[in-house]
Design goal:
It is a single chain. This protein is an alpha+beta fold. 27% of the residues lie in helices and 13% in strands. It has 4 helices and 5 strands, in the order H-E-E-E-H-E-E-H-H. The chain has helices spanning 13-19, 63-83, 130-145, 181-188; strands at residues 26-29, 33-37, 47-51, 88-92, 108-113. A hairpin with a 3-residue loop joins strand 1 and strand 2.
């Protein structure tokens, strides 16, 4: 991919961990993913979730793997809520060098949060004109609906955020179902 060359795989710390698990404190593993405590955490309980196969950034992955990883991120976040005295989590991706990605392997960060914990994820809002916003809106919308070589038909903009019944579900044999999962999530709503 344009952000990382393929020879970076040889230098990838995550791929090295796949070869030698003794380097990591694993909290979860299945045939597609691995989750470990961050060796230099921003907060106690900071977890890194990564695909086992080498994918440098989000756009290089298959939708099935992306779905699996984000379902796992939700479950890991829930387990952090259930086991640690926290008030929230940040779940984010540093996608590419300009976004702060340090390792050429896609990862999802799950960071436990407490009020006034000193972790700064703030930014200064950019001032934009209505014309600038409209131009960017149209550019992104057009790119989302434009036919791609690897997509048979265009996806209307309305369907981008609406899941359908035909989307693959998370494999039930890989992640154990949790009882009262919805109730646990509802209790967390402020």
């Amino acid at each position: 991919h344009r952000y990382y060359s393929e020879n970076k795989m040889a230098e990838c710390a995550i791929c090295e961990i796949m070869k030698d698990r003794s380097q990591a404190r694993l909290v979860y593993e299945d045939e597609h993913a691995i989750a470990m405590l961050h060796p230099k955490p921003s907060a106690i309980g900071h977890v890194l979730l990564a695909p086992k196969n080498h994918y440098p950034i989000l756009e290089s992955m298959d939708d099935t793997i992306i779905s699996h990883l984000f379902n796992l991120a939700s479950k890991i976040s829930s387990s952090i809520f259930d086991t640690m005295s926290i008030q929230g989590t940040n779940i984010f991706v540093q996608n590419g060098l300009p976004a702060g990605q340090k390792v050429p392997h896609f990862m999802i960060h799950i960071i436990p949060r407490k009020e006034k914990d000193g972790i700064g994820l703030q930014w200064t809002p950019k001032q934009m004109t209505t014309e600038q916003l409209s131009a960017i809106e149209l550019m992104i919308r057009d790119a989302l609906v434009a036919p791609k070589a690897d997509i048979e038909e265009s996806i209307p903009i309305q369907e981008v955020s609406t899941p359908t019944e035909t989307e693959p579900s998370q494999p039930k044999d890989r992640v154990p179902p949790e009882e009262n999962y919805l109730l646990k999530q509802l209790r967390r709503i402020p």
